[in-house]
Amino acid sequence: MGMKDQFQDKAEQMKQQAKQRAEQAREQGRERGQQGQERGEQGGERMRDEESQRREGQEPLDQDFDI
Predict the structure, then answer these.
(1) What are the Cα distances from residue 6, in Å, to 11, 18, 32, 49, 52?
(2) CA-CA distances (angstroms) from residue 52 to 4, 6, 59?
(3) Banded pLDDT at 12 (limits 50, 70, 90)
(4) Separation of alpha carbons 16 and 10, rounded Å
(5) CA 16 to centroid of chain Cα atoms
(6) Residue 49: in which H helix or E strand, if any?
(7) How far apart are CA 41 and CA 51, in angstroms?
(8) pLDDT value of residue 33
(9) Cα dist from 22 to 29, 38, 44, 51, whole Å
(10) Cα 32 vs. chain centroid, distance in angstroms?
(11) 63: how many CB neighbours lie within 10 A of its CB?
């Protein structure tokens, strides 16, 4: 096997590895995206709950003072 063949083989191996890594990164990105969406939905509920609690906590103060 000549040096040219060795370089071509090595280049082909590296190309295949790059494709595999890119596919793995895409799959991980999809998984993270799905997890992020689930967390985002939970976070939105938590923010709404905190906001309603904050409003409930402020309502008595508003009623005590005439504005």
Answers:
(1) 8, 18, 39, 64, 68
(2) 71, 68, 10
(3) very high
(4) 10
(5) 27
(6) helix 3-64
(7) 15
(8) 82
(9) 10, 24, 32, 42
(10) 4
(11) 8
DSSP three-state, residue 2: coil
**Which three-class secondary structure string do you get for 21-42?**
HHHHHHHHHHHHHHHHHHHHHH
Confidence check: pLDDT of 19 > 60:
yes
Instruction: Please tell me what DSSP assigns to residue 66.
Output: -
Q: Give the Cα separation of 63 and 66 in Å (integer).
A: 7
Q: What is the model's pTM?
A: 0.46
Comparing CA positions, the residue from 65, 32, 3, 33 lying closest to residue 11 is: 3
Res. 7: pLDDT tops 60: yes
